[in-house]
Automatic annotation (TrEMBL), chain A:
It is a multi-pass membrane protein. It is found in: Cell membrane. Its main location: membrane. It comes from the Bacteria. PANTHER family: HIGH-AFFINITY BRANCHED-CHAIN AMINO ACID TRANSPORT PROTEIN BRAE (PTHR30482:SF10), HIGH-AFFINITY BRANCHED-CHAIN AMINO ACID TRANSPORT SYSTEM PERMEASE (PTHR30482). Pfam families: BPD_transp_2. Coiled coil: none annotated. The chain crosses the membrane at residues 20-47, 54-77, 89-111, 118-138, 167-186, 217-237, 257-278, 290-312. This is Branched-chain amino acid ABC transporter permease. Keywords: Cell membrane, Membrane, Transmembrane, Transmembrane helix.
UniProtKB/TrEMBL annotation, chain B:
Keywords: Amino-acid transport, Cell membrane, Membrane, Transmembrane, Transmembrane helix, Transport. It holds the Pfam family BPD_transp_2. The lineage of its organism: Bacteria, Pseudomonadati, Pseudomonadota, Alphaproteobacteria, Hyphomicrobiales. Its main location: membrane. This is Branched-chain amino acid ABC transporter permease. The chain crosses the membrane at residues 6-28, 35-55, 61-85, 97-116, 140-160, 189-208, 214-235, 266-284. It is a multi-pass membrane protein. Belongs to the binding-protein-dependent transport system permease family. LivHM subfamily. The keyword Membrane applies. It is found in: Cell membrane.
Length: 343, 289
């Protein structure tokens, strides 16, 4: 009986998810260019938020330097495409491989030498800032002047991943859907249980025979690679990349704000958080410009972060779930039932 | 050539003392409360603005501006701890980090709203007066900043070592529960500690206001610089903060001579990466987090 009711609620959850994304697709078909460009950014940061969520929310490793991986992805696509005319598909793949390797090396070095917690977070910031300054002084990648994509011809070109704003909206929507479904699948997989075990108690997990070192490197590397894919698409959408904007601290904050506001470690949290925080940031930026107060968007971001951690430490999405969860949804992070021997 | 190098190194030592004071603020807060103040750079920038405005309005000497910054920033830190930070002291580290990133965004946004993005140079004659000692030619602003910072570091060290409050503060740092058992007023100690930490940053900011133009965007750089400094010296270590400050000051000065300006700004991060990886507890090996 237990299994069937689980399966029923699973089907409901996947159905609800599919419904949300179908609704978003309809929105993309109907909205004007302004709404579409804003929602594209929201969806891209949902995807990158998932990558960050995977690392802290499930793997327990705090990164404040995800801009490093986002920037690597954006540069890999831009350099191959702008300088050599190579399709962004190869750039995305290469960017993911490079960022994944950089992430693995960083993680390997830090965890080998027991650089954990806050020290690891500082290491990620230092690596991102170092890379940003180096890219700014590197003429081959355009230095501070950045790299510019050619304006799209107007026709949708899936092979070269070029098209109008609506085309990129659907690309971002597909990425976000993959991100949400991927997080859900990973958190139910063997790796998901292992990563949460090492997040909650590293030593206990090790005592049970989990090779936590290997898994920590793995989670950082996967997170870095997915962040790079998001970065590659972000660069294409923006049409130009500069080291200060694509590798700056602001990107690291944009990446983490979705999952923190929406709900750490949940599949839907980053989507909900990005939907709330990014339009708010944008609206406050517009309002600030109108009032002649240039820092208003930054104040709004800061206030949202503080208020969420203060009053809704689990984020907005789990609070919604809990509100209705009393009726039907199962609690998140439940402990799996152990199977009896011989079953 | 030799005198150029000596001058550069002396300049690095002088600014290094001020960096030491910034790092000391961060390290005291961490050592006692175990919270990582990621908004520390904003406190330095507040100090720079206080220096800018006091010198501009009243034309006071920079040491007096630093004293005003100390009082203002102590009260600010005390209130910030009582109203906000207090609620997050016992939360997991990543929540604290995120709250402080929020505070940092909030403060830099407020600075931007209040003063705009343009840099404001403090109109002080100090920057143009120089003193010659043997082969060295040093500017008066740096000497005054370094002397004040050095005196403050020594005074704070003595105060924490010999006063009753210093003893209870160290007790709270060593063993919070034990402190509560023997009747220490832990919430008050935390608030005062946070006030002292932000005051250190504010004073340092006011002292360097003749050298750094006041600008909201400086904050992140100062935050990371403070982290580099304390990690070089060992997070939570008093002597380490001072040694870290001197190391970073001299390293930056030498880098400015040897590399292009953009490479100079990358140096602290390169140092942070190397030290984190190979000597994560710093020179003075403080306690684990």
């Amino acid at each position: 009986m237990q299994r069937t009711s689980d399966q029923a609620s699973d089907a409901k959850r996947w159905g609800a998810g599919a419904l949300v994304f179908a609704a978003l697709a309809v929105v993309g078909g109907m909205s004007n260019a302004y709404v579409i460009s804003l929602l594209t950014i929201v969806l891209l940061f949902t995807f990158m938020g998932q990558s960050w969520n995977l690392m802290l929310g499930i793997g327990g490793q705090l990164s404040i330097g995800h801009a490093l991986f986002v920037g690597i992805g954006a540069y890999a696509v831009a350099i191959l495409n702008i300088k050599y005319g190579v399709t962004p598909w190869i750039g995305l793949l290469l960017g993911a491989v490079i960022a994944g390797s950089v992430g693995a090396v960083l993680a390997w070095l830090s965890f080998r030498f027991e650089v954990r917690g806050i020290y690891f977070a500082l290491l990620t910031i230092a690596a991102a800032e170092f890379a940003r300054i180096m890219f700014g002084g590197w003429d081959y990648v355009g230095g501070m002047q950045g790299l510019f994509y050619q304006a799209p011809s107007g026709a949708m070109d899936l092979r070269m991943l070029r098209g109008d704003a609506r085309f990129y909206y659907f690309v971002a929507l597909a990425l976000a859907a993959i991100g949400v479904a991927g997080t859900e699948l990973i958190s139910r997989s063997y790796w998901g249980y292992v990563w949460r075990a090492m997040r909650d108690d590293d030593e206990a997990a090790r005592a049970l025979g989990v090779r936590t070192f290997r898994h920590k490197v793995l989670v950082v590397s996967i997170s870095a690679a997915t962040a790079a894919i998001g970065g590659g698409v972000l660069g294409l959408v923006q049409g130009a990349i500069f080291p200060d904007s694509i590798m700056g601290m602001a990107i690291s904050v944009d990446v983490l704000i979705g999952p923190v506001v929406g709900g750490l470690g949940t599949a839907f949290g980053p989507l909900v958080g990005s939907m709330v925080a990014i339009p708010l940031h944008h609206a406050m930026g517009v309002l600030g410009d109108a009032l002649g107060l240039p820092g208003l968007n930054s104040v709004a971001y800061g206030a949202v972060l503080i208020l969420v951690v203060w009053f809704l430490p689990d984020g907005i999405w789990p609070s919604i779930v809990r509100l209705y969860g009393a009726i039907q949804l199962p609690a998140r992070g439940r402990i799996p039932q152990l199977r009896k021997v011989g079953e | 050539m030799l005198s150029l190098w000596l001058n550069v190194i002396a300049g690095g030592v002088l600014i290094g003392l001020v960096y030491g004071l910034v790092a000391l603020g961060l390290t005291i807060i961490f050592g006692v409360m175990r919270v990582v103040n990621f908004a520390h750079g904003e406190m330095v920038v507040f100090g720079i603005y206080i220096g800018y405005w006091t010198v501009r309005i009243w034309d006071v000497p920079i040491v007096l501006a630093a004293a005003i910054a100390a009082v203002v920033m102590f009260v600010f830190g005390f209130l910030l701890e009582t109203l906000v930070v207090k609620r997050f002291v016992n939360r997991p580290h990543h929540y604290q980090f995120i709250v402080f990133i929020g505070l940092s965004l909030l403060f830099s946004g407020v600075l931007l709203m209040s003063f705009g993005p343009d840099p404001r140079p403090t109109a002080s004659q100090l920057s143009f007066q120089t003193v010659s000692v043997g082969p060295l030619t040093l500017d008066w602003a740096r000497i005054q900043a370094a002397a004040t910072a050095g005196l403050l570091i020594a005074a704070l060290g003595a105060y924490l070592k010999y006063s009753a409050f210093g003893r209870s503060l160290r007790g709270a740092a060593n063993n919070r529960l034990g402190g509560l058992v023997v009747g220490l007023n832990i919430p008050r100690i935390y608030a005062v500690t946070f006030g002292i930490g932000t005051a250190c940053a504010g004073v340092a900011g006011a002292l360097i206001s003749p050298l750094f133009d006041a600008q909201p965007y400086l904050a992140v750089d100062f935050t990371l610089l403070a982290f580099v400094t304390v990690i070089v010296g060992g997070l939570g270590s008093f002597g380490g903060a001072l040694l870290g400050g001197l190391t970073i000051g001299v390293a930056e000065a030498i880098a400015a001579l040897m590399f292009t300006p953009s490479m100079k700004t990358a140096l602290p991060y390169a140092l942070l990466i190397i030290i984190l990886i190979f000597r994560p507890r710093g020179f003075f090996g403080a306690k684990d987090i």
